[in-house]
Amino acid sequence: MSYDVDAVRAGFPALEDGYAYLDGAAGTQVPTSVIEAIATTYRRGIGNVGGAFPASHRADEIVGRARQAVADLVGGAPDGVVFGPNMTTLTYRMAATLAAGWKPGDEVVVTRLDHDANVRPWVQAAARAGATVKWAEIDAAGELPVAQFDGLLSDRTRLVAVTAASNVLGTRPDVASITAVAHAAGALTYVDGVHATPHGPTDRRALGADFYATSAYKWCGPHVGAVVADPALLDTLRPDKLASSRDEVPHRFETGTLPFADLAGVTAAVDHLAGLTGHEGTRRERLLASMNAAEAHEQQLFTRLLDGLRGIPGVTVQGAPARRTAVAYFTVGGQTPRETAELLAAARVNVWNGHNYAWELTGALGIRDSGSAVRASIIHYNTAEEVDRLLTALST
Description:
Elements: H1 5-9, E1 20-21, H2 32-44, H3 54-74, E2 81-84, H4 87-99, E3 107-111, H5 120-129, E4 132-136, H6 148-152, E5 157-163, H7 175-184, E6 188-192, H8 204-207, E7 211-215, E8 225-229, H9 231-234, H10 260-274, H11 283-310, E9 315-317, E10 327-332, H12 337-346, E11 349-350, E12 352-354, H13 359-365, E13 373-377, H14 384-395
Parallel strand pairs: 1-11, 3-4, 3-5, 5-6, 6-7
Antiparallel strand pairs: 2-8, 7-8, 9-10, 10-13, 12-13
Helix pairs in contact: 2-10, 3-10, 4-5, 10-11, 11-14
């Protein structure tokens, strides 16, 4: 089906300010449908869950709908959807829970490609348990070779943490092959899908992700994080929790009161993604069609962006992975990354500069201590005109 970016953009009031929002990898803008879902929740009145009155019942329904929506988005079961304030907080919580069973001599594998939120929680948890950390390295193109994992894993490996897509290079490693090696060694897998989820269809089971993390604000929702796993796996884990709080899965992993209005926004954001094309069917079927169309749109713009950047004297693009999301990480000769970002801001183009929490990756690239690079990222509401505006600003 055809992809009508103008129709998509019409649903985003923030895009009316005249700026080119090429900063989606740091957080996306929010459509009116999400804004209204949140506002309507507050207008109607809500109570905490589990009460005997209608406002409480509404909260129960909101939570249930949000779990189903995220399950539809990534391919999972609603009872396996754990909500939290963000991916980082949830990953620290999962790391502490899983590491409670680790012993000295156990091993954890992390990668230089990952956002630090899928590195540091595991490194720190391993240190407390006396476990050994092993590192999967990137190659010169910014790829994460699968072959190295055979030599990294053993029967003492307890967990492999890997990203589904780099948030600065866009690299999409062969996660399914990596997780297959991990499972053959008897290890669990924790896949960071924060950057990957907005840029194409997601199937958690096909990826082999025992745990799959995502953040709604990267796909046009509010600031809510989620980790999705099989309910049966979650039921084997015992996180620290209040004695008085619910013990069944997934509630035992959710500390405190959930943000009910924001969860209504999560459902609306998933519905927004499902409605990007006119495809019919279940929400899961519509999501698969929409995200395929969005990915094709983004990749077309990304080719335009990459070709343009490579044609500008003095511009260096970091990495050249074969399969990547629509994000370019680059420097301009004679300018610091911050100066380039400020130049583009003056041209009404929003981009990010710095390490963007890709701490190990920017270190491996040898650019972290010099300000790293500039990141321009494309999401499904961006246009060719916005890409051209960035290229023109860099060329003048």
